Amino acid sequence: MTMPASECFDVSVDGHIAHIKLNRPEKRNAMIRAFWSELPAIIHHIDTEADARVIVLSSTGPHFTSGLDVSAFGGAEISPASGGGEDAEAQRHARLTAGEAFYQNVLGMQASFSALETCRIPVLAAIQGGCIGGGVDLTTACDMRYCTEDAFFTIYETKIGMTADVGTFPRITKLLPEGLVRELAYTGRRIHAAEAKDVGLVNRVYADHASMLEGVMEIAREIAANAPLAVAGCKRIINYARDHTTADTLDYIAIWNASMLQTDEIMEAMTAAAEKRPGNFAPLPKKRTIGAA
């Protein structure tokens, strides 16, 4: 299976690390229509083919992303009202089905970002400049976030009369205190890098884009040096713990290790550490496509 062609991203894989770069800096990496199908297709490919052990998501130009490009959708997916030059009967049908069409479109966009969360591989976001609107939805679906000193985040949808609906609120409320989330959402104000670090929205702040990429890639290499099955298990259990009680999670991790724990991988990790060499770990198995033989 070859990597999907992309209008919005450059993708490379090197040393067990997949690097996905937003590549429309002249448009501030706005999320056009193609973005929403290309991103999950790329993530699905990397996860299904087990092409990498870590994914780094970065961007180009002065800003990480300006969020959803409303103009690219012609407004139809953003506002339930539609009609244009259609005849009266077609306009009536459009009005009657607009709510369902809008709902289905938002579900599809939500799924695009959920692909980052549900894939087996850790996703590290490297953020420079503005992370605006849909950028917050995108980066909160990643496992970790890192940024430059000039970075800022804003739930900008409020400023343009919308309520963020592609993933910000169910995720950011697990990352930040509720009172702060409410302030950021109600005001739409920017939270800059230093504050984002202080409140735990980002793990580290770097002086500039180059040093950030160098630092994030070093973290990615450290993750990639560990047993992929163990790292995938960590991601699965952490996500489960976030959404379930302690008792449920304790039971789940016991069942998980009862079926997934690999003594050979433990011995290889210990031996490799003693011999000061990279571990010779089993790769993640490829995921079977439904209907495949």
Kindly summarize this structure in a few lines.
With 293 residues, this protein is α/β, with parallel strands linked by helices.
How would you characterize this protein structure?
The protein is an alpha/beta fold. It has two domains: 9-224, Alpha-Beta Complex (2-enoyl-CoA Hydratase, Chain A, domain 1), CATH 3.90.226; 228-275, Lyase 2-enoyl-coa Hydratase, Chain  A, domain 2. Helices cover 48% and strands 13% of the residues. It has a six-stranded mixed beta sheet with strand order 1-2-3-4-6-9, sandwiched between helices. A three-stranded mixed beta sheet has the order 5-7-8. Strand 2 (17-22), helix 1 (33-49) and strand 3 (54-58) form a beta-alpha-beta unit. The longest helix has 31 residues, at 88-118. Mean pLDDT is 93; it is low at 79-83.
The CATH homologous superfamily of the largest domain is called 2-enoyl-CoA Hydratase, Chain A, domain 1
CATH architecture of the largest domain: Alpha-Beta Complex
Which segments are poorly predicted (pLDDT under 50) over 5 or more consecutive residues? 79-83
Number of strands: 9
Determine the mean pLDDT: 93
Annotate the secondary structure layout.
Blueprint: E1 9-14, E2 17-22, H1 33-49, E3 54-58, H2 88-118, E4 123-127, E5 130-132, H3 134-140, E6 144-148, E7 152-154, H4 168-175, H5 178-187, E8 190-192, H6 193-199, E9 204-206, H7 209-224, H8 228-243, H9 246-260, H10 263-275
Parallel strand pairs: 2-3, 3-4, 4-6, 5-7, 6-9
Antiparallel strand pairs: 1-2, 7-8
